[in-house]
Design goal:
Length: about 200
């Protein structure tokens, strides 16, 4: 369950994506060693094998302390095994998609939380390159596609929000201009002077 369900993983997964912009596969394969540096979380991304280091959110420590520590390497050993098996890993995203549908939330996926992370960081004043580094992207063109208008709260999900489909005024992102696209998430961004570079 996304909310109120058994186990730490669903709530922790949503928290980690909202606070750190992590992909579902990176969360599933999160290692205890990611928390070895005081006050920081360090993750090597599964997709591009890129190092991400971010300040540790206080709530993260509480979530870690509330769950079992029953594996020497993985925080979520069951999910790590699924994510490590190419023929099985789709189960992770399918699980969340089913829960969203059950809650009556359509047109969203777990990955929407990464869009919310990027949009929040832009609103807080991060440059597009700072957001790129935090998300583990190779190109700012890719990152630009994650920055949208204001996230919309989903009233039937506790402490979660997803980037909404309603286009309002886009946040100001240093070095970027708004580019209206056909994206269902609303506004995307492209580098000034580089049309079509949203990726």
């Amino acid at each position: 369950m996304l909310v109120g369900g058994p186990g730490l993983y669903p709530r922790f997964a949503c928290h980690l994506s909202l606070e750190y912009g992590l992909r579902l596969s990176d969360i599933a394969k999160l290692e205890w060693a990611s928390f070895d540096k005081p006050g920081r979380i360090i993750v090597w991304t599964d997709k591009h094998d890129r190092r991400i280091e971010l300040p540790l959110h206080p709530e993260t420590l509480g979530l870690i302390g509330s769950g079992p520590h029953n594996h020497g390497r993985w925080v979520f050993p069951e999910q790590a095994a699924i994510a490590s098996d190419p023929s099985d890993r789709a189960k992770l995203s399918v699980y969340f998609s089913r829960q969203l549908k059950r809650l009556g939330i359509h047109g969203k996926s777990f990955h929407s939380l990464r869009h919310t992370f990027a949009t929040r960081r832009a609103k807080l004043g991060d440059t597009i390159d700072e957001i790129r580094l935090k998300m583990g992207h190779v190109s700012t063109a890719t990152t630009g596609g994650y920055v949208h208008a204001e996230p919309v709260e989903c009233p039937n999900i506790i402490q979660l929000d997803f980037v909404g489909y309603e286009r309002t005024e886009p946040p100001k992102v240093a070095g970027y201009s708004a580019a209206s696209t056909g994206s269902p998430c609303g506004t995307q961004f492209e580098p000034k002077g580089a049309p079509g570079a949203t990726g």
